[in-house]
Amino acid sequence: MARWGLVIVAVYLMVALLTPVLVSLGWLPDANAGLANPIYDSPSWSHWCGTDRLGRDVCVRTMAASGVALQVVLLAVGLALLLGVPLGMVSGYLGGGVDRVLVLLMDTLYTLPVLLLSVVLAFLLGKGIPNAAAALCVVYVPQYFRVVRNQTAQVKSELFVEAARSLGAGPFWILRRYLLRNVITSVPVLLTLNAADAVLVLGGLGFLGLGLPETVPEWGGDLNLALAAVPTGVWWTALYPGLAMFILVLGLSFLGEGLEAWVSGANPRSSSN
Length: 273
Known about the structure:
Helix content: over 70%
Number of helices: 10
Order of helices and strands: HHHHHHHHHH
CATH topology: MetI-like fold
Strand content: under 5%
CATH architecture: Orthogonal Bundle
Number of domains: 1
Low-confidence stretches: 266-273
Mean pLDDT: 87
Radius of gyration: 22 Å
Shape: elongated
Distance between the termini: 13 Å
């Protein structure tokens, strides 16, 4: 599963990197370049995936949206990782009042529905790539916090940590030198699964009109524009963005499940697993 997931994600990365280059060379039209007479053009040799209501090439917009999605998701999940892991380690190691306050705050965020919290934050922050990434980041910080805090609370009572503490090592040194390497093992699994979920949440925000501006290619926004056209028989404006989103989520999920099996020591090839 990890291999298939890695292949799918690698293909999307390649498409995200090559699309701007091909557009700049003139081999592909600009994602926002429409026809002189806008029309829903069905798939043909000139437009492989057809055109939308403004005459923009659906194939190019779908390809360009992969780069936008990866950019927002990596930024959001990366920021959540950088915030959630240190907070979880500090909370699990220090305990006491600091731990209670942080746990209360993170549990409050964790109990809120992901999409609902993202919608509220996106509405308050406004449209744009940084704002969408920030809205998603807040959603995933509690997940890293909870996992890392629980593991830190278990590892801090180990003999090697007690020995380091008895020799005069400070909290910062213990956290960085002894605890980080022991609690970070499950983070890559959580990162890939959160990335898959973030693709869907970003698509949901775009579908509701709260994600990115219309001029920015984004799968959820294009699905929103296609909503009125599908009942009239214009199926291609919804099929390709939706399919692109589905395959990326599938690839990230495969990668996360494969990493989880590897981290837990399971053998993915064994029929018993």
